[in-house]
Design brief:
DUF4154 domain-containing protein; 6 helices; 8-stranded mixed β-sheet; two-stranded antiparallel sheet; alpha/beta; Rossmann fold; globular; about 180 residues; signal; YfiR/HmsC-like
Length: about 180
Amino acid sequence: MKRVLFSVFTLLMCMTANAGITFSADKVKAVYLVRFANFIHWPQEESFSQINYCVMGESKVTYTLKTLLVEHQVRNISVVYRQIENVQSLSQCQLVYFTPEAYSHLNNDRGSTISLDRVGLVTVSDQYAFAKTEGMVEFREKSGRIVPVINIDNAAKNRITIRSQLLRISKLISEPQGDE
């Protein structure tokens, strides 16, 4: 009986490996966004009636995210998808995802980078160098994989706690600390 079970298990493993299941980068980014709430703690989380996931701009990532968040909960708190049009709406968000086009458009309109410093705000984009400036998390493609790049200083400024499980799979960057 053990041999039969082992043979079936081995056969299934081989079939799965040969199936070559792949997911688009957009779907992977959307899943990362959904899962982030499991590994992030907001300073005012005890008072949340819901977690507002806001998006600025439209893309395949935002369409997938909207679908994934239907009736989604984290730690018994409902997660709500919100489309926002301007930075003034950020006050209602706990996490905001900027499409590269929306983030570039915001910076071009204002003539300089926007301020994303606010206690309890998690900022995410796949805009190049987003995490090096004011962003907290940037999605980068490396060797065919999506890697979160986390600016730990920007997370600390906004008093966001990120669990080690997410930090381990991410590339961490920090502002220069000077000579100490």
